[in-house]
Amino acid sequence: MADQDSRKFQEERIARIARELSPGCDVVFSSARDRIKFQLLDSPALGAALLAECTWERLPGELADKPDGWIKGRIVECSKGKIKG
Fold this sequence. Notes:
By secondary structure, the protein is α+β, with helices and mostly antiparallel strands. The protein has one domain. The chain is 35% helix and 20% strand. It has a 3-stranded antiparallel β-sheet, with helices on one face. It is globular, with a radius of gyration of 12 Å.
């Protein structure tokens, strides 16, 4: 079983959820050490427009306690209407 507190696990989880919300999008994570920060870009075939830029004041381990629905809601909020939940 994967370590749910790890940054890698949470980044993979966020990417999976983001692609459920916006199929084909690219998820680009920053190299920030302690906080989760990422951008969602539309499909390269559509011009790779910025869909959302998210910075969460949470450590990767703190996301382990959050359900997928919570993460979906935060992604939708970060998109400012570009992604629908």
